[in-house]
Amino acid sequence: MFVKSIMIPKEKCLTIDASATVQEALQKLSEREIDALPVLENGEYKGMFNQYLLYKTFFKSSLDKESFLSQTNVGDAIVRENTYVPLDAVFEKAFIKLYDFPIIAVVDDERKFLGIVSRHDTIVQFKSAFGMNSKGIRITFTSVESEGRVLKMSDILHKYHTSIVSLVTFDETDKLVRRIVVKIDSDQYLERILSDLEKTGFRVMHIDNEL
């Protein structure tokens, strides 16, 4: 999944010009009940405006509150100037950069603003990856890290004509054991599937019935 598939295009984004005042930017945030705005200058991404980080700029200024709000330009109060993702990046990169901020800008090679990806967008994609929007049986198991283990698991499921709703793997801390979470569409042959997994060296850890 690529960023371009999940981003909100610029035509639907609320932005603020770098020449606007801090007061104007705060008014926009308040009206739309959002936390951050992409800051643009002639269509180029300059950074983000965030009300919770605005105090840093205020403390560095010598202005009182009212003067600061009316006289300070947004361009002087931006953050995350160099935090953005290209259009063809995989969405996981956007997720990593969103851990401490609600949105991230999507730009082209010349830093022209193309849109945003929100934390909500990435969570929706992870829910899809885990098959959380579909019914089924979720099986968590571990396997010694070796070539062909996922293929072996797939062969067992194919043997019982069981479809995979989602499949996610994780590396354990010692790098020798892999944790696998698979969601299947039916519990018709569940006991046989679990038995075959165990016989083949997989260790079943947990089962969730989400039918």
Tally of helical segments: 8
Give the CA-CA distance, first to last residue: 27 Å
Inertia-based shape: elongated
Percent of residues in helices comes to: 25-40%
Largest sheet: 4 strands, mixed
H-E string: HEEHEEHHEHEEHEHEEHE
Rg measurement, Å: 24 Å
**Beta-strand content estimate:** 25-35%
Number of strands: 11
Class by alpha and beta content:
alpha+beta
Mean of residue pLDDT? 90
How is the largest sheet built, in terms of strand order? 1-7-6-5
Low-confidence stretches: none
Task: Describe the structure in your own words.
By secondary structure, this protein is of the alpha+beta class. Helices cover 32% and strands 29% of the residues. The protein has eight helices and eleven strands. The strands form three sheets. A four-stranded mixed sheet has the order 1-7-6-5. Strands 9-10-8-11 form a four-stranded antiparallel sheet, with helices on one face. A hairpin with a 5-residue loop joins strand 6 and strand 7. Helix 5 (91-97) packs across helix 6 (119-129). The longest helix is centred in the N-terminal third of the chain and has 11 residues, at 22-32. The mean pLDDT is 90.
